[in-house]
Amino acid sequence: MVLDTFKQALDKVKGVQVKSYGQLCSIARALDVVGDRWTLLIVRELLIGGALRFGEVQRGLPGIATNLLTQRLRDLETNGVVAREPAPGIPGTPTYRLTERGRALDGVLRELLKWGAPTVPEAPSDAIFQMHWLSQPARFLLADHRPDEPPIVIRFGTFDDGFDLTAAAGTITVNPCQRDVSPLARVAGPGPVLVALLQGAMPLPAAIAHGVDVTGDAATLTRVLPAPQASTNVPGQYS
């Protein structure tokens, strides 16, 4: 008994205490790895940003304690989901990136996007919004409706919090804002209105009237936006 108690205390100190549902089930086994609070949101940040420093991950997770983020990253690294590497040109500072196994969670998050879409309009009025979070829904909600036209780039937000959306030859891609890219349009505005716009629940003129700001060629957005729907609850648009 004393030995078992000592081992448990030692595991806590090391930060590798084993938690498991103890079930011979792939769902339970997956949740053993990524089922803890914040874990999938860490994966979200790394899917969006690629290789990120600790502080960059933390900025995308408002409310997480530093020690908890440290523990979650350590657990993900132990389980082969995240790799830690030296930051280029910054000795002693690591970056974190998803491994191939970690990137395979992209499909899981896509299904969560679909499942959670109907709940977004009922989010609390004080819910936090960061523009780069919108990049993942944009990948699936938007489409290149004029594939024969030259490629275009639309910037949502800023370098500090945003993403570049490219429409080219019928394909939509999203990336962190690139300094060597000149977007045809830049988009900013309140989160709920932008979500409604991308879901097809609000036409562009109404979104602009409700606070969305478009600089540059606003008509560029019509190439990628969905046709307006009757409701904000349009998870079926995630095709």
Overall description:
This protein has 239 residues and is an alpha+beta fold. The protein is built from 10 helices and 8 strands. The chain has helices spanning 2-14, 26-34, 39-49, 54-59, 66-78, 100-103, 106-116, 135-141, 191-199, 204-209, and strands at residues 52-53, 82-87, 90-98, 152-157, 162-168, 171-175, 185-188, 213-216. A 5-stranded mixed beta sheet has the order 6-5-4-7-8, with helices on one face. The chain has a 3-stranded antiparallel beta sheet with strand order 1-3-2. A hairpin with a 4-residue loop joins β4 and β5. It is globular and about 50 Å long. The chain starts with a helix and ends in a 23-residue tail after the last strand. Residues 25-124 form the HTH hxlR-type domain. It holds the Pfam family HxlR. Keywords: DNA-binding, Transcription, Transcription regulation. This is Winged helix-turn-helix transcriptional regulator.
